[in-house]
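Appendix B. One record, verbatim.
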Amino acid sequence: MREIRWTDDIIEKQRALKPGDRNYSNEWVMMRAYALHLNDQGIRPTYARIREMLDSLERGYTGRPCQIYEALRRLYATGQLDRYPNGRRVRVWERTYRSIREAARGERCRQSTVRQNIARAELGWAFLD
């Protein structure tokens, strides 16, 4: 499967193409390219954002979670994307964790302790998102 480079006008170009046209990209290629683009921009590639992109193509794609997962599975396996993008990132001093659970593991405490430290505005503990 070929990879494409995401540009600002790619949605308009792809909307005009039909299957079989020279630069037509299928659903999976578009999902991968968009997820990598969002990740490069520092935006989390959530399923909701990917569904919005698929809706804007006006091709009738459903964007079911199982389809999105299968399209992005190789990116998850190679570490190009975080596996669980919906967690709230936590900063503890200079370290950034991708979720409360990971922060608890990294700091060797309970998840409830992480939540309490953030709620009490303990020095060095904060949500990033």
